[in-house]
Design brief:
Radius of gyration: 16 Å
Number of helices: 10
Order of helices and strands: HHHHHHHHHH
Helix content: 55-70%
Number of strands: 0
Distance between the termini: 44 Å
CATH architecture: Alpha Horseshoe
Mean pLDDT: 97
Low-confidence stretches: none
């Protein structure tokens, strides 16, 4: 997979590499040891289409199964000097629904709000809104309270995305 990714001449070759990572035959290798590979893919892929797929289909399952080791990693990625690692940290719980770790979600968002190093970046502001909007499907009251409590540091985009389906 890494050879295919690093040698790719076309985006589709990188899509194939991430598809290989998500194939059922690769499940045995989806553990904390694989996270450095995903870190490499995120940094070198450096665009939303690759990063979002890796966050939700590669990183999220490892975080779900290995919360003790991966929660601190997500907190570290949330303050990394790389926009795309920060985005992964914010999006890493999208599929978790009721199992979302609200303390982790709060920490990774607060590390990236307006006034922080990457808080004005579109892809960060959009990710914050998306993560909150996704969680609003299972806990709309928590999201409303969070947005209200952080109104002074959430961008307009993040607020609109978070509250999009809440009326």
């Amino acid at each position: 997979m890494r050879t295919l990714w690093d040698g790719a001449l076309f985006r589709e070759e990188r899509y194939a590499a991430t598809a290989l990572a998500q194939h059922r035959s690769a499940r045995a290798w989806q553990d904390p040891g694989t996270m450095e590979l995903y870190r490499h893919l995120v940094i070198t892929g450096a665009w939303w289409d690759h990063v979002d797929d890796i966050a939700t289909h590669c990183v999220a399952p490892i975080l779900a199964r290995h919360t003790q080791s991966e929660t601190p990693r997500m907190r570290a990625w949330a303050v990394a000097d790389d926009l795309w690692l920060r985005r992964v940290a914010i999006l890493s719980q999208l599929p978790f629904k009721e199992s979302t770790d609200l303390a982790l979600l709060t920490d990774v968002i607060e590390a990236n709000v307006e006034g922080t190093a990457y808080g004005s970046e579109f892809f960060i502001r959009k990710a914050i809104g998306w993560a909150l909007r996704q969680h609003a499907r299972v806990d709309p009251d928590w999201v409303r309270r969070f947005v209200a409590a952080h109104a002074d540091v959430l961008s307009g985009l993040s607020r609109r995305e978070a509250l999009k389906h809440l009326g």
